[in-house]
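Long-time lurker, first post. I've been practising inverse folding by hand and with some scripts of my own, and I keep getting stuck on stretches where the structure tokens seem ambiguous. Below is the full token string for one chain I'm working on. Before anyone asks, I'm not after the true native sequence, just a reasonable design that respects the backbone. If someone could post their per-position residues I'd love to compare against what I wrote down in my notebook.
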């Protein structure tokens, strides 16, 4: 790339009001092109010729093309570079006689963008029919990056200029993991905002800065390899890191960054160019292996930029922002929530994954399985997260955006309508009582108890507070937290579930040795039984927090009766040690590992209560990873085998007179809740946002009639597939809001 061109442009732009026509002349001269034209996006989504060197000057201000019209409009619409040896014979070519462009055959058009906003297009043209070389295209791309500055300033000085659209709207379909509607700018997980300093005065110094950052990045990767442990499974992690490090060291892309710095770009701008080149390539590549490698480079570019501004404060998140991520762990999600995002869209994730559960607990609208969204969006793009239809609309047209904003206002009004239900008795239309409790894990969620009239906390996930803080809490910290929870519950039951870490819920300090199949690995009470000190500390904290009040403790991931008896013994032993025993100690088990279903009677004899964890039970029952978006919706709770299992459990628990509840995500779906209550599981625990909609359905149903219909469907026999559709139709026909 021409260093002289950059230097000349920099000098010109340093003078405050260098006219664009002067820039166009310099670009044309340095690129040995007969024409250089600059088009700016104007209100109404029109591209206007604002400067030219080589076309007729009188066309400036007159030649206008809609987005998508002509070659310039095409480049703006798709965000892609056009490199055409014979432009006038291209099907999209739009003839504009005032420009006098007939003699010019070859055309190279590059969109000018900043922070995801389309600002215009820069074009060079030549008489001779030829394809521009890769480095010429590259030079014009760098020029486009520089032109963003004056074009953005121009747009900002214009009424309505700040609303200019970027490229055309894009539409992504996914699975709604948490319902809701958000209209706001996107922020991209793992990407920082576009660099503001594009040019460097002292390229050698800039080069040194870059080299230091690269060294920092590489030693960070080495550090990761050292700390990945020496467990046999850690070898896998190390292999992956090793491969990643090889890519990191790969001279190719680092050299390209260095070359750009040598032409006068700042290190940030040079890395940004490398990353956007990778993003551009990713748009076209479908091979999953290659895509992963490119994703690695993108990720490394991000690390490099982080290394460059090590110590700089994290940029603020704009209000109402929608987070886009390829994958997202629960700890990251909590991080972003603390920074103020209003919604989340991930390319991979499903309803029962822990990030989704946390999003639900936080009432954070979330969409999963929206493939391709990362490559298409840039931070700052406006988007609509539409949970109703399971879609994300990127860069929506104005009228669409306005319609959604109206819908959002109506939704808020509807939600206020539910509030009246909070104080109505919890019984079906024909008088069957039920109990609705909430799942919680953060103290912010406790306020919901009173606001929605919940009967208690049917599942308190104790690991969430630790994930939120990123470390284990000591006994005193835990006791203080649990005590606050009991205070907020004010006598209503709280089922504290002991730590369920492992699987996708990992603390940074966790050393699980990189299990291949963590959901079925060393998690939950399996860790507790092998490292009893951690579990005993938690049990002590719970007993201390109860301070004489009733206490319910529930153990997750129990696979055998023996495991339950062992953890129960630990709890009873701790009870002997505290000064003040709880007024009543109830010890329960979750039912989420299928093997336990064949030990039901023994378990019911040993437990004070049981609760079905349908998220894990479903994943193990169907051998279908709860986090796999490709499997989301494939297997249904409302299918005959699961209904048979639930009905049998309900009968056995009733016969043994042991309270039974269900606390998986399924309980929060109004239609599933109807079925559960019809089967005799009348205590349901769910995320707070779902409680009143579930109550609306249950209080509206004639349970006897619904039960008869359900029994009839189940008698009909089936191939094991879902009964959701006929059940849903029945509910709608009988005015039950599901
Ligand atoms: C479940 O598995 O259904 C459950 C409630 O626990 P978690 O989702 O925390 O694994
Ligand atoms: Mg579970």
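-- Answer (accepted) --
I ran through it position by position. Result:
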């Amino acid at each position: 790339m021409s260093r002289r061109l950059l230097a000349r442009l920099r000098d010109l732009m340093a003078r405050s009001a260098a006219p664009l026509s002067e820039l166009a002349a310099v670009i044309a001269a340095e690129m040995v092109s007969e024409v250089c034209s600059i088009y700016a996006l104007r209100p109404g989504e029109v591209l206007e010729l604002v400067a030219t060197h080589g076309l007729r000057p009188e066309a400036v201000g007159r030649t206008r093309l809609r987005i998508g019209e002509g070659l310039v409009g095409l480049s703006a619409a798709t965000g892609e570079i056009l490199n055409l040896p014979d432009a006038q014979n291209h099907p999209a070519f739009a003839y504009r006689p005032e420009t006098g462009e007939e003699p010019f055959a070859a055309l190279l058009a590059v969109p000018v963008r900043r922070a995801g906003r389309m600002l215009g297009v820069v074009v060079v043209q030549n008489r001779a029919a030829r394809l521009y070389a890769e480095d010429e295209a590259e030079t014009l791309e760098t020029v486009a990056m520089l032109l963003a500055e004056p074009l953005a300033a121009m747009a900002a000085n214009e009424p309505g200029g700040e609303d200019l659209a970027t490229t055309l709207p894009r539409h992504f379909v996914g699975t709604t993991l948490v319902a809701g509607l958000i209209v706001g700018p996107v922020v991209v997980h793992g990407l920082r905002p576009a660099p503001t300093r594009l040019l460097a005065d002292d390229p050698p110094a800039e080069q040194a800065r870059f080299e230091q950052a690269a060294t920092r990045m590489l030693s960070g990767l080495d550090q990761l390899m050292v700390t990945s442990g020496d467990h046999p499974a850690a070898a896998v992690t190390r292999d992956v890191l090793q491969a990643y490090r090889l890519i990191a060291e790969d001279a190719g892309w680092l050299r390209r960054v260095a070359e750009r710095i040598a032409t006068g770009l700042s290190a940030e701008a040079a890395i940004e160019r490398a990353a956007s080149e990778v993003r551009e390539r990713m748009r076209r590549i479908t091979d999953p292996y290659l895509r992963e490698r490119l994703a690695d480079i993108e990720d490394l570019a991000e690390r490099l930029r982080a290394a460059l501004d090590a110590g700089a404060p994290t940029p603020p998140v704009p209000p109402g922002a929608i987070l886009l991520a390829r994958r997202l762990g629960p700890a990251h999600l909590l991080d972003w929530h603390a920074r103020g995002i209003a919604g989340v869209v991930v390319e991979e994730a499903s309803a029962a994954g822990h990030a989704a559960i946390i999003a639900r607990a936080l009432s954070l609208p979330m969409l999963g399985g929206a493939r391709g969204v990362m490559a298409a969006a840039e931070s700052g793009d406006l988007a609509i997260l539409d949970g109703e239809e399971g879609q994300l609309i990127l860069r929506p047209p104005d009228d669409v955006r306005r319609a959604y904003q109206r819908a959002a206002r109506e939704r808020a009004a509807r939600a206020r309508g539910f509030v009246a239900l909070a104080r109505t008795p919890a019984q079906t239309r024909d008088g069957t009582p039920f109990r609705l409790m909430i799942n919680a894990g953060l103290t912010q969620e406790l306020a919901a108890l009173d606001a929605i009239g919940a009967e208690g906390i049917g599942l308190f996930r104790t690991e969430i507070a630790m994930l939120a803080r990123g470390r284990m809490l000591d006994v005193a910290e835990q006791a203080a937290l649990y005590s606050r929870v009991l205070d907020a519950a004010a006598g209503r039951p709280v089922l504290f579930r002991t730590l369920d870490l492992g699987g996708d819920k990992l603390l940074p300090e966790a050393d699980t040795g990189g299990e291949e199949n963590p959901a079925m690995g060393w998690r939950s009470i399996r860790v507790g039984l092998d490292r009893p000190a951690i579990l005993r500390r938690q049990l002590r904290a719970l007993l201390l927090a109860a301070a004489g009040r009733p206490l319910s403790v529930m153990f997750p991931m129990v696979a055998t009766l023996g495991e339950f008896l062992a953890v129960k013994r630990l709890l009873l032993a701790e009870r002997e040690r505290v000064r003040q025993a709880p007024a009543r100690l109830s010890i329960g088990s979750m039912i989420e590992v299928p093997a336990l279903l064949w030990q039901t009677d023994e378990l019911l004899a040993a437990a004070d209560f049981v609760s079905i964890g349908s998220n894990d039970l479903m994943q193990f029952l169907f051998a279908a990873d709860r986090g796999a978006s490709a499997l989301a919706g494939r297997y249904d709770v409302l299918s005959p085998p699961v209904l048979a299992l639930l009905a049998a459990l309900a009968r056995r628990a009733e016969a043994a007179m042991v309270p039974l509840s269900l606390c998986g995500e399924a309980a929060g779906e109004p239609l599933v809740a109807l079925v559960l209550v019809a089967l005799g599981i009348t205590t349901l625990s769910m995320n707070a946002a779902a409680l009143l909609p579930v109550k609306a359905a249950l209080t509206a149903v004639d349970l006897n009639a619904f039960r008869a219909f359900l029994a009839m469907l189940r008698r009909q026999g089936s191939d094991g597939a879902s009964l959701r559709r006929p059940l849903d139709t029945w509910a709608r026909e009988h005015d039950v809001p599901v």
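A couple of notes from the structure itself: Residues 394 and 713 are 42 Å apart (CA to CA). The mean pLDDT is 86. Happy to go over any region you disagree with.
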